[in-house]
Amino acid sequence: MTVLHRLLVAITPPWWSRYRLEFVGNDIIAGLIVALMLIPQGLAYATLAGMPPQYGLYASLLPVVFYALLGSSSVMSVGPVAITSLLSASALTPLALADSNEYVLAAALLAFLSGAFLLAAGLLRLGALAQLLSHPVVTGFITGAAILIIISQLKPLLGVSASGDNTLVVVIHLVAALPQTNLLAASIGVTGLFLLLFSRKNTVPLLLRAGVSPNLARTLQRLVPMLLLLSGAALVFVGKWQDDLQVIGALPSGIPSFALPELHADWFQELWFPALIIGLLGFVESISIAQSFAQQKREPLDANAELRALGAANIGSALAGGFPVTGGFSRTLVNAEAGAHSPLSGVFSAGFVLLALWFATELFAFLPITLLAATIISAAIQLVNASAFTHAWRYDRAEGGAMLGTALGVILFGVEVGIGTGVALSIITLVWRTSRPHIAIVGRVPDTEHFRNVARHQVVTDPRVLMIRIDESLFFGNAESVYAEITLALGRYGKAQHLVLIMSSVSHIDVTALEMLLHLDETLRPQGITLHLAEVKGPVADKLKESALPARLEGEVFLTTYQAFQKLTTTSVQP
């Protein structure tokens, strides 16, 4: 019985214990609403990834089912999103594949590799992977990628041709091609874009004024993209414009054939690193979304379960010939607002998408590509976060610089270079800061046992006792600068007989820093200055016991700064 119980626990979804039968109706309704939003997004994001449109719907089937089995978020909606679609196109385009069938096979392999990396990371309990990319880098990347997406979709929006090796060349060619704009396509696309942007802020207020209930108003607003696409297809059909502008064309009906992707050695060599980047970025985006909704609903969230669930979701997309997927903020928001109680809403959503693949593919045959471009651009505009740049720049120039560098790297040189630039800038910022730690000369706050920076507070000091607080761990990168700062401080306080290093913020001392402290002690002795330590953390003290410092240190190691101040100001030799 115990073995059976453990097996049931192992295969039971994390959210299942919280589920109630009365939740089914809400999950069905939420699934329908998300499906009506997902269908136009899936078609659009597939074209962004360079795939035939129907593969955006294929990538919306198994991923949500696999996520429901393994995921821990009750409202997460997994499927194609703009960022992973752009990353997929960026990874697959350099392969220069001979035909669309090979491109589809390579995309499936990319999704499978991404899923395998995530699944392996989840099994190894590497949920902390989300912390490898700083928030400024992720924000800069998303903003830069969104601008790339917008630029890439201006071509189908206007019905022009423009190409180039980088964004600047594409923009130049795009401007040069403006006289050849397809006026019919541009009229439909620009009008559609305007309606999408207008509806985002104005549909709900207008409906509320007309007496529509808030819930129904929000639901109708979410359906605008689907209504717009169907209206566009109807206009093309009635006006017989399919020969005058690019349309999706007939989509194959029915479910896709499920199979493992073919493992081409040369493709694997080119795709394993992009797959790793796509997986990591997708996980960072998805876990951020899941955490925000979990906090609102006060539900537990397991980062390792999310890794495993996203990994399985991408493998599920690969089995259907799809491309990489992840959690989408807009769909997750709609899912939550529609009353979803569990990932079963995603399973119901997949069921409705499947029904559309069986019975409604003819509705999209006349769908103009320019409206798909408008749908993508309207979604990408929401990802451009200018206020985050302003806030980061005002708060911390280094973080703002990393954010801006990442965005510009993505826009000017591509996704991989942009991410590499952001990570490099973050590392450089971290190294620069830790190599120049904040060091404060402190004194006692009158009538207390507290000590504060003499430059910021009115404190009591003794010229014979110099007390310095080091606000950083000591390692090879900052040992020399710390030594120099201490030497300068001793020069300014020429009457000092005791030097107390307050180590309350020091969590680690490496070998280089240890040698610096030994050298400092030896240097101070001939000058008649005794070196002391105070508030050494337990783990650091344990390491120091294994070194030569305690035996060679002429001074003491005090438990508190106050004890050091009391004893040394009393026993110091008067000048």
Polypeptide structure, described:
Strand 5 (465-470), helix 20 (479-492) and strand 6 (498-502) form a beta-alpha-beta unit. Helix 7 (135-158) packs antiparallel against helix 16 (369-381), helix 7 packs antiparallel against helix 19 and helix 9 runs antiparallel to helix 10. The strands form two sheets. This protein has a six-stranded mixed β-sheet with strand order 4-3-5-6-7-8. The protein has 575 residues and is mostly helical. The chain is built from 24 helices and eight strands.
- Report on the biggest sheet: 6 strands, mixed
The average pLDDT score comes to 87
Number of helices: 24
Spatial order of the strands forming the largest sheet: 4-3-5-6-7-8
The best one-word shape is: elongated
In a nutshell, what does this entry contain?
With 575 residues, this protein is mainly alpha-helical. It contains 24 helices and 8 strands.
Key phrases:
575 residues; mainly alpha; six-stranded mixed beta sheet; 24 helices; elongated
Q: What's the topology here?
A:
Elements: H1 2-11, H2 24-48, H3 54-58, H4 62-70, E1 78-79, H5 82-92, H6 100-123, H7 135-158, H8 167-176, H9 183-209, H10 214-222, H11 224-239, H12 265-297, H13 303-319, E2 326-327, H14 329-337, H15 344-359, H16 369-381, H17 386-395, H18 397-413, H19 415-435, E3 439-444, E4 451-453, E5 465-470, H20 479-492, E6 498-502, H21 511-524, E7 530-534, H22 538-545, H23 549-552, E8 557-558, H24 561-571
Parallel strand pairs: 5-6, 6-7, 7-8
Antiparallel strand pairs: 1-2, 3-4, 3-5
